[in-house]
């Protein structure tokens, strides 16, 4: 099940993926982002930051963030998830602070940071001390070169947390903006404005994004029928599911599953993020 709070504390995890829309979420890991092809939008708090090829970003633990892709060109990104408990010298700062601007443009990214990311993304096994040294190098540059602010000022207030949690718990049901506003004891206008300002989309698009990510997980990891997946993730009909899915991925759910099966057999890059 897709949860608002992801478990990302498995040491060091590296992923290199094609990037598509990914709804707001948070986790305990440090998330390092490096764009290798194309461009993406990184949303942190109420701000949306554009990232081009060669740009670097970092998201500290327990900060709500999301990704959007608006261009037609394929975008590929390296993601590193780092357990903050492995770096005690920075642990306190990681819990208290967050970068004022999480993105560093290509021209300002130190070559040592790029080399460290590519090394960590390319290994299957490695010397633990060398791995630790590369991560320490990234964090040293982050704290030396990126201005920090108190994490509480980043924009993830109680309403944002409650909204993300509410959708994560109820996306399989028939939910509406009106019912959600009533359940959260806020006005429909306040909630609608929060989605537009913080998540840069309307309520319906946000909920469908959560449903699609659940559907993609099921398509990749189960043999459930597409009809069952459609109903299980909250779409009222397979026709709606197919339309919304194709709007995002440019292919049908059936074609997506076939492509993933082909990619898995050939060790190719997946399309999900």
Question: Overview of this structure, please?
Answer:
The two termini are 16 Å apart. Helix 2 runs antiparallel to helix 3 and helix 5 crosses helix 6. The protein has 273 residues and is of the alpha+beta class. The strands form 3 sheets. A 5-stranded mixed beta sheet has the order 1-3-8-5-6. A 5-stranded antiparallel beta sheet has the order 2-9-4-7-11, with helices on one face. The protein contains 10 helices and 12 strands. The chain folds into 2 domains: 148 residues, Jelly Rolls (Sandwich), CATH 2.60.120.810; 109 residues, Arc Repressor Mutant, subunit A (Orthogonal Bundle). The N terminus and C terminus are likely disordered.
Please summarize what this structure is.
The protein has 273 residues and is α+β, with helices and mostly antiparallel strands. The protein has helices spanning 88-96, 111-122, 128-145, 158-170, 177-184, 188-199, 203-221, 226-232, 238-249, 253-266; strands at residues 5-6, 12-18, 22-27, 30-37, 39-44, 47-52, 56-59, 65-68, 76-82, 97-99, 103-104, 148-150.
